[in-house]
Design a protein that fits this description.
This protein is α+β, with helices and mostly antiparallel strands. The protein is about 25% helix and about 25% strand. Keywords: Nucleus. Its main location: nucleus.
Amino acid sequence: MLKAARPKTAAGKRALKKREPQLIEGAKPAVFMKGTNTSQLVTSVFRDLYALKRPDAVLLSKRNEVRPFEDPHSLEFFSQKNDAALFVLASHSKKRPHNLVFARMFDYQLLDMVEIGVERGVPMEMFKGTKSAVGHRPLILFSGDCWDASDELRTFKSILLDMYRGTQSMDGVDLAGLEHVIAVTAVSTEKVHLRTYTIQLKKSGTKLPRVELTEMGPSCDWVVRRCRPANADAWKAATKIPKELKVKSVKNIERNAMGDQVGRIHMEKQNFDKMQTRKMKGLKRGPNEDEEDEGAAEDDIPAFAKRARLEQESD
Protein backbone atom coordinates (compact mmCIF):
# COMPACT_ATOMS: atom_id res chain seq x y z
CA MET A 1 0.00 0.00 0.00
CA LEU A 2 1.05 3.58 -0.55
CA LYS A 3 2.46 5.61 2.31
CA ALA A 4 0.19 8.39 3.58
CA ALA A 5 1.74 11.64 2.42
CA ARG A 6 1.56 14.85 4.42
CA PRO A 7 0.61 17.90 2.37
CA LYS A 8 3.24 20.64 2.17
CA THR A 9 1.42 23.07 -0.11
CA ALA A 10 -2.08 24.48 -0.39
CA ALA A 11 -2.69 22.49 -3.57
CA GLY A 12 -1.68 19.29 -1.80
CA LYS A 13 -4.10 20.05 1.04
CA ARG A 14 -6.92 20.60 -1.44
CA ALA A 15 -6.09 17.34 -3.22
CA LEU A 16 -6.17 15.35 0.03
CA LYS A 17 -9.35 17.09 1.12
CA LYS A 18 -10.94 16.11 -2.18
CA ARG A 19 -10.17 12.46 -1.41
CA GLU A 20 -11.94 12.61 1.93
CA PRO A 21 -15.46 11.14 2.23
CA GLN A 22 -18.15 13.49 0.91
CA LEU A 23 -21.78 13.78 1.93
CA ILE A 24 -22.87 13.98 -1.70
CA GLU A 25 -20.56 11.99 -3.96
CA GLY A 26 -19.86 12.87 -7.54
CA ALA A 27 -19.32 10.43 -10.38
CA LYS A 28 -17.17 7.53 -9.26
CA PRO A 29 -13.90 7.35 -11.24
CA ALA A 30 -13.02 4.06 -12.90
CA VAL A 31 -9.70 2.54 -13.97
CA PHE A 32 -9.57 0.56 -17.21
CA MET A 33 -6.53 -1.71 -17.40
CA LYS A 34 -5.34 -4.68 -19.46
CA GLY A 35 -3.83 -7.92 -18.34
CA THR A 36 -0.73 -9.54 -19.76
CA ASN A 37 -2.67 -10.98 -22.70
CA THR A 38 -5.81 -9.71 -24.48
CA SER A 39 -7.72 -10.61 -27.63
CA GLN A 40 -9.00 -8.31 -30.35
CA LEU A 41 -12.62 -8.99 -29.38
CA VAL A 42 -12.25 -8.12 -25.72
CA THR A 43 -10.06 -5.10 -26.56
CA SER A 44 -12.73 -3.55 -28.82
CA VAL A 45 -15.43 -4.01 -26.18
CA PHE A 46 -13.03 -2.74 -23.50
CA ARG A 47 -12.38 0.51 -25.41
CA ASP A 48 -16.07 1.17 -26.01
CA LEU A 49 -16.88 0.72 -22.32
CA TYR A 50 -14.12 3.23 -21.58
CA ALA A 51 -15.59 5.66 -24.13
CA LEU A 52 -19.01 5.47 -22.44
CA LYS A 53 -17.45 6.18 -19.04
CA ARG A 54 -15.35 9.20 -20.03
CA PRO A 55 -14.38 11.70 -18.66
CA ASP A 56 -14.60 9.96 -15.26
CA ALA A 57 -12.23 7.18 -16.33
CA VAL A 58 -8.49 6.48 -16.45
CA LEU A 59 -7.04 4.23 -19.14
CA LEU A 60 -3.73 2.59 -18.23
CA SER A 61 -1.57 2.06 -21.30
CA LYS A 62 0.82 -0.47 -19.74
CA ARG A 63 -0.15 -4.08 -19.24
CA ASN A 64 -0.19 -5.43 -15.71
CA GLU A 65 -0.17 -8.96 -14.36
CA VAL A 66 -3.28 -8.71 -12.21
CA ARG A 67 -5.27 -11.67 -10.90
CA PRO A 68 -7.97 -10.15 -8.69
CA PHE A 69 -9.63 -13.42 -7.65
CA GLU A 70 -6.31 -14.86 -6.43
CA ASP A 71 -4.66 -11.68 -5.08
CA PRO A 72 -6.73 -8.46 -4.84
CA HIS A 73 -3.90 -6.39 -3.35
CA SER A 74 -2.80 -5.17 -6.77
CA LEU A 75 -6.24 -3.67 -7.39
CA GLU A 76 -6.17 -2.04 -3.97
CA PHE A 77 -2.79 -0.49 -4.83
CA PHE A 78 -4.10 1.02 -8.09
CA SER A 79 -7.27 2.15 -6.33
CA GLN A 80 -5.35 4.20 -3.79
CA LYS A 81 -2.91 5.51 -6.38
CA ASN A 82 -5.61 6.74 -8.80
CA ASP A 83 -8.31 7.46 -6.18
CA ALA A 84 -10.66 5.15 -8.08
CA ALA A 85 -13.62 3.13 -6.82
CA LEU A 86 -14.30 1.04 -9.96
CA PHE A 87 -12.15 -1.23 -12.13
CA VAL A 88 -12.53 -2.94 -15.48
CA LEU A 89 -9.83 -5.50 -16.29
CA ALA A 90 -9.53 -7.07 -19.75
CA SER A 91 -7.69 -10.37 -20.22
CA HIS A 92 -7.60 -13.45 -22.42
CA SER A 93 -6.48 -17.01 -21.73
CA LYS A 94 -7.20 -20.51 -22.91
CA LYS A 95 -9.19 -21.33 -19.80
CA ARG A 96 -11.13 -18.02 -19.77
CA PRO A 97 -11.15 -16.48 -23.25
CA HIS A 98 -12.27 -12.87 -23.87
CA ASN A 99 -12.54 -12.08 -20.19
CA LEU A 100 -13.71 -8.89 -18.43
CA VAL A 101 -13.63 -8.34 -14.67
CA PHE A 102 -15.78 -5.59 -13.11
CA ALA A 103 -14.60 -4.74 -9.58
CA ARG A 104 -15.75 -2.20 -7.00
CA MET A 105 -13.78 -0.77 -4.08
CA PHE A 106 -14.71 0.77 -0.74
CA ASP A 107 -12.16 2.71 1.28
CA TYR A 108 -9.47 1.41 -1.13
CA GLN A 109 -10.41 -2.17 -0.23
CA LEU A 110 -12.04 -4.69 -2.56
CA LEU A 111 -15.80 -4.79 -2.01
CA ASP A 112 -17.16 -7.09 -4.75
CA MET A 113 -16.48 -8.11 -8.35
CA VAL A 114 -17.93 -10.10 -11.24
CA GLU A 115 -16.16 -11.90 -14.08
CA ILE A 116 -17.80 -11.69 -17.52
CA GLY A 117 -17.00 -13.55 -20.73
CA VAL A 118 -17.57 -11.82 -24.09
CA GLU A 119 -19.25 -14.21 -26.54
CA ARG A 120 -20.04 -11.62 -29.22
CA GLY A 121 -19.13 -7.98 -29.62
CA VAL A 122 -19.72 -5.35 -32.28
CA PRO A 123 -17.68 -2.17 -31.63
CA MET A 124 -19.07 1.33 -31.81
CA GLU A 125 -17.17 2.17 -34.99
CA MET A 126 -19.14 -0.43 -36.96
CA PHE A 127 -22.40 1.48 -36.48
CA LYS A 128 -23.12 4.43 -38.72
CA GLY A 129 -24.74 7.61 -37.47
CA THR A 130 -24.12 10.16 -34.77
CA LYS A 131 -22.74 9.20 -31.39
CA SER A 132 -23.48 10.72 -28.00
CA ALA A 133 -21.24 13.47 -26.65
CA VAL A 134 -18.61 12.70 -24.04
CA GLY A 135 -19.70 13.25 -20.47
CA HIS A 136 -23.47 13.04 -20.96
CA ARG A 137 -25.37 11.06 -18.39
CA PRO A 138 -27.12 8.06 -19.98
CA LEU A 139 -30.45 6.44 -19.33
CA ILE A 140 -29.93 2.89 -18.00
CA LEU A 141 -32.56 0.23 -18.66
CA PHE A 142 -32.48 -3.21 -17.03
CA SER A 143 -34.97 -5.63 -18.57
CA GLY A 144 -35.63 -9.29 -17.82
CA ASP A 145 -36.97 -11.28 -14.90
CA CYS A 146 -33.63 -12.85 -13.93
CA TRP A 147 -31.90 -9.86 -12.31
CA ASP A 148 -33.05 -10.87 -8.83
CA ALA A 149 -32.76 -14.61 -9.43
CA SER A 150 -29.06 -14.92 -8.53
CA ASP A 151 -26.42 -13.11 -6.47
CA GLU A 152 -24.17 -12.80 -9.53
CA LEU A 153 -26.68 -10.76 -11.51
CA ARG A 154 -27.63 -8.63 -8.51
CA THR A 155 -23.97 -7.76 -7.95
CA PHE A 156 -23.38 -7.10 -11.66
CA LYS A 157 -26.42 -4.81 -11.87
CA SER A 158 -25.26 -2.81 -8.86
CA ILE A 159 -21.74 -2.37 -10.29
CA LEU A 160 -23.07 -1.21 -13.69
CA LEU A 161 -25.32 1.33 -11.99
CA ASP A 162 -22.41 2.72 -9.97
CA MET A 163 -20.25 2.95 -13.09
CA TYR A 164 -22.61 4.81 -15.42
CA ARG A 165 -25.01 6.63 -13.10
CA GLY A 166 -22.90 9.79 -12.88
CA THR A 167 -23.42 12.21 -10.01
CA GLN A 168 -25.98 11.19 -7.41
CA SER A 169 -27.53 14.64 -6.89
CA MET A 170 -29.97 15.70 -9.59
CA ASP A 171 -32.66 18.38 -9.35
CA GLY A 172 -34.31 17.82 -12.73
CA VAL A 173 -34.04 16.21 -16.15
CA ASP A 174 -33.41 18.19 -19.34
CA LEU A 175 -34.67 16.33 -22.39
CA ALA A 176 -32.06 18.02 -24.58
CA GLY A 177 -29.32 16.49 -22.41
CA LEU A 178 -30.51 12.90 -22.87
CA GLU A 179 -28.52 11.56 -25.79
CA HIS A 180 -28.11 7.80 -25.32
CA VAL A 181 -29.60 4.76 -23.60
CA ILE A 182 -27.72 1.78 -22.17
CA ALA A 183 -30.05 -1.25 -22.29
CA VAL A 184 -28.96 -4.39 -20.41
CA THR A 185 -31.13 -7.49 -20.79
CA ALA A 186 -30.84 -10.61 -18.64
CA VAL A 187 -31.76 -13.46 -20.98
CA SER A 188 -31.08 -16.05 -18.27
CA THR A 189 -29.16 -16.29 -15.01
CA GLU A 190 -25.92 -16.68 -16.99
CA LYS A 191 -26.38 -14.67 -20.21
CA VAL A 192 -26.63 -10.88 -20.49
CA HIS A 193 -27.03 -8.71 -23.59
CA LEU A 194 -25.78 -5.11 -23.78
CA ARG A 195 -27.14 -2.64 -26.34
CA THR A 196 -26.57 1.11 -26.64
CA TYR A 197 -28.85 3.52 -28.51
CA THR A 198 -28.85 7.21 -29.35
CA ILE A 199 -31.98 9.23 -28.57
CA GLN A 200 -33.58 11.40 -31.23
CA LEU A 201 -36.37 13.78 -30.22
CA LYS A 202 -38.69 14.66 -33.10
CA LYS A 203 -41.86 16.71 -33.45
CA SER A 204 -45.08 15.00 -32.47
CA GLY A 205 -47.61 17.84 -32.57
CA THR A 206 -47.86 17.88 -28.76
CA LYS A 207 -45.75 19.18 -25.90
CA LEU A 208 -44.01 15.82 -25.54
CA PRO A 209 -41.67 14.95 -28.44
CA ARG A 210 -41.65 11.66 -30.30
CA VAL A 211 -38.67 9.51 -29.28
CA GLU A 212 -36.74 7.36 -31.73
CA LEU A 213 -33.83 5.07 -30.82
CA THR A 214 -30.93 4.32 -33.15
CA GLU A 215 -28.31 1.74 -32.21
CA MET A 216 -24.87 3.28 -31.87
CA GLY A 217 -22.90 0.47 -30.23
CA PRO A 218 -21.31 -1.30 -28.58
CA SER A 219 -23.45 -4.42 -28.96
CA CYS A 220 -22.29 -7.30 -26.76
CA ASP A 221 -23.41 -10.72 -25.60
CA TRP A 222 -21.95 -11.63 -22.23
CA VAL A 223 -21.89 -14.74 -20.08
CA VAL A 224 -21.47 -14.58 -16.30
CA ARG A 225 -18.55 -16.64 -14.98
CA ARG A 226 -17.23 -16.04 -11.49
CA CYS A 227 -18.49 -13.72 -8.78
CA ARG A 228 -17.18 -12.53 -5.45
CA PRO A 229 -20.02 -10.89 -3.47
CA ALA A 230 -19.46 -8.28 -0.81
CA ASN A 231 -18.90 -9.18 2.82
CA ALA A 232 -21.87 -8.43 5.09
CA ASP A 233 -19.93 -6.06 7.36
CA ALA A 234 -18.23 -4.29 4.45
CA TRP A 235 -21.54 -3.89 2.60
CA LYS A 236 -23.19 -2.44 5.70
CA ALA A 237 -20.40 0.10 6.08
CA ALA A 238 -20.46 0.99 2.37
CA THR A 239 -24.23 1.58 2.29
CA LYS A 240 -24.46 3.48 5.56
CA ILE A 241 -26.31 6.78 5.20
CA PRO A 242 -24.82 9.78 7.05
CA LYS A 243 -26.93 11.48 9.70
CA GLU A 244 -26.96 14.72 7.71
CA LEU A 245 -28.66 13.01 4.74
CA LYS A 246 -31.23 10.99 6.64
CA VAL A 247 -34.80 12.14 6.08
CA LYS A 248 -36.39 13.15 9.36
CA SER A 249 -39.57 11.18 9.90
CA VAL A 250 -42.71 13.20 10.70
CA LYS A 251 -44.98 11.70 13.30
CA ASN A 252 -48.25 10.17 12.01
CA ILE A 253 -47.33 10.85 8.35
CA GLU A 254 -46.41 8.02 5.99
CA ARG A 255 -46.66 6.98 2.36
CA ASN A 256 -48.76 4.17 0.96
CA ALA A 257 -47.85 1.67 -1.75
CA MET A 258 -48.79 4.16 -4.49
CA GLY A 259 -46.47 6.84 -3.11
CA ASP A 260 -49.26 9.11 -1.81
CA GLN A 261 -48.75 10.90 1.48
CA VAL A 262 -51.17 9.76 4.17
CA GLY A 263 -51.69 11.52 7.50
CA ARG A 264 -53.25 10.25 10.72
CA ILE A 265 -55.15 12.49 13.18
CA HIS A 266 -55.76 11.42 16.80
CA MET A 267 -58.86 12.90 18.51
CA GLU A 268 -60.26 12.52 21.99
CA LYS A 269 -63.34 10.36 22.53
CA GLN A 270 -66.48 12.43 22.07
CA ASN A 271 -69.37 12.29 24.57
CA PHE A 272 -72.54 12.86 22.56
CA ASP A 273 -74.73 13.08 25.72
CA LYS A 274 -73.12 16.36 26.75
CA MET A 275 -73.23 17.98 23.34
CA GLN A 276 -75.30 21.20 23.46
CA THR A 277 -76.77 21.15 20.01
CA ARG A 278 -79.84 23.24 20.93
CA LYS A 279 -77.73 26.34 21.54
CA MET A 280 -76.43 26.26 18.00
CA LYS A 281 -78.12 28.83 15.83
CA GLY A 282 -78.40 26.51 12.86
CA LEU A 283 -80.16 23.81 14.91
CA LYS A 284 -82.77 25.99 16.71
CA ARG A 285 -86.44 25.12 16.18
CA GLY A 286 -88.69 27.71 14.55
CA PRO A 287 -92.43 28.32 15.21
CA ASN A 288 -93.46 26.54 12.03
CA GLU A 289 -91.50 23.46 13.04
CA ASP A 290 -93.32 23.37 16.44
CA GLU A 291 -96.80 23.51 14.76
CA GLU A 292 -95.82 20.79 12.32
CA ASP A 293 -94.58 18.59 15.18
CA GLU A 294 -97.89 19.08 17.09
CA GLY A 295 -99.92 18.23 13.99
CA ALA A 296 -97.80 15.15 13.36
CA ALA A 297 -98.29 14.13 16.99
CA GLU A 298 -102.11 14.37 16.64
CA ASP A 299 -102.08 12.16 13.59
CA ASP A 300 -100.10 9.52 15.40
CA ILE A 301 -102.75 9.13 18.23
CA PRO A 302 -104.94 6.02 17.74
CA ALA A 303 -108.74 6.38 17.14
CA PHE A 304 -109.81 4.77 20.46
CA ALA A 305 -107.57 7.14 22.37
CA LYS A 306 -109.14 10.11 20.63
CA ARG A 307 -112.69 8.92 21.54
CA ALA A 308 -111.69 8.44 25.14
CA ARG A 309 -110.28 11.93 25.34
CA LEU A 310 -113.44 13.46 23.75
CA GLU A 311 -115.68 11.64 26.29
CA GLN A 312 -113.62 13.02 29.17
CA GLU A 313 -113.90 16.54 27.76
CA SER A 314 -117.72 16.21 27.34
CA ASP A 315 -118.16 15.05 30.95
